[in-house]
UniProtKB/TrEMBL annotation:
Keywords: ATP-binding, Nucleotide-binding, Transport. It comes from Thiobaca trueperi. SMART domains: AAA (SM00382). The keyword ATP-binding applies. PROSITE patterns: ABC_TRANSPORTER_1, ABC_TRANSPORTER_2. It comes from the Bacteria. SUPFAM superfamilies: P-loop containing nucleoside triphosphate hydrolases. Residues 15-255 form the ABC transporter domain. This is Phosphonate transport system ATP-binding protein. The keyword ATP-binding applies. One of its GO terms (molecular function) is ATP binding.
Length: 267
């Protein structure tokens, strides 16, 4: 199976995965997968259902340990080192599906939860003033300062996404991960949220890795697309080269022929 090498391959690496194997239950899901994640770029992972996209995200955030191969973080070292793992996890933030806000809390309190590891979980005290200032600054950066005291359940879909992004960015992450962050909304809204997401995160120098199942959104957002098939990388290149032929190397024929996400886009 051919692997297309795109220009992103030549940029500065943030994470290096070498020949990793991962088991889930009794099956080997990732079968000697090698991949370089470029610093400061948006990498989008695509592939058929069950191929191991979420598993790969678990490897990237250090929650899933490969049984073979190595994951290393540029400038830090291998994730198998507990000190490296701790620091990597401190530098990593996640955007969740539908942004997983707590409805009864304000926008500010939801953003503060992004820094929950900075204070005792049972603390009865108010959040320290410096963290409150940081959370308000994060809301300012996503254009939501005027909604700082609004309860999350009074926010629009776009506003909720911006709170979710502020909650991730307030951690000042070097790596931002999102597994299908836009999956539950209609296609037009998904496109709008995707464009807004891209404009909020790009320019901040953050390395972003997203799993997306809609190929047109993946092509719109990605600086680089990584397609998985059979536990390995079957495509790796810029979005404009992820054409029909490349898609057919990643998605099985029946998924391309029917109303699958992959069939929504040709080049
Ligand atoms: N906790 C688990 N225990 C056992 N098997 C698991 C577990 N989690 C996932 N799997 C299996 O591992 C394989 C890869 O799952 P994964 O969720 O990574 O795929 P995916 O590409 O993200 O799928 P989808 O697009 O459907 O979300 C699947 O066959 C799945 O059934």
């Amino acid at each position: 199976m051919g692997v297309v090498q795109g220009p992103a391959q030549q940029t500065r690496p943030s994470l290096l995965l070498r020949d990793i194997q991962v088991h889930r239950g009794r099956q080997t899901v990732l079968k000697g997968l090698s991949l370089t994640i470029a610093t400061g770029a948006i990498t989008v992972i695509v592939g058929p259902s069950g191929v191991g996209k979420s598993t790969l995200m678990g490897v990237l955030n250090g929650l899933i340990r490969p049984v073979a191969g190595e994951v290393s973080v540029a400038g830090l070292g291998p994730l198998s080192d507990p000190g490296v793992l701790r620091e990597h996890r401190r530098r990593t933030a996640t955007v969740f599906q539908e942004h997983a806000l707590i409805d009864r809390l304000t926008a500010l309190d939801n953003v503060l939860l992004g820094m929950a590891d900075r204070r005792h979980p049972l603390s009865p005290l108010p959040w320290p003033a410096d963290l409150q200032r940081r959370a308000a600054q994060a809301l300012l950066e996503v254009g939501l300062l005027h909604r700082v005291n609004a309860r999350a359940d009074t926010l629009s879909g776009g506003e909720r996404q911006r709170v979710g992004i502020a909650r991730a960015l307030v951690r000042n992450p070097s790596l931002l991960l999102g597994d299908e962050p836009f999956s539950a909304v209609d296609p037009a809204l998904t496109r709008r949220l995707g464009d807004e997401f891209k404009s909020l995160v790009s320019g901040a120098g953050i390395t972003v890795v997203l799993v997306l199942h809609q190929i047109d959104i993946a092509r719109r957002l990605a600086d680089r697309i990584v397609g998985l098939a059979d536990g390995r990388v079957a495509f790796d290149g810029p979005p404009e080269t992820f054409d029909t032929a490349a898609q057919s190397r990643v998605f099985p024929r029946h998924e391309l022929q029917h109303d699958s996400p992959a069939s929504q886009s040709t080049s």
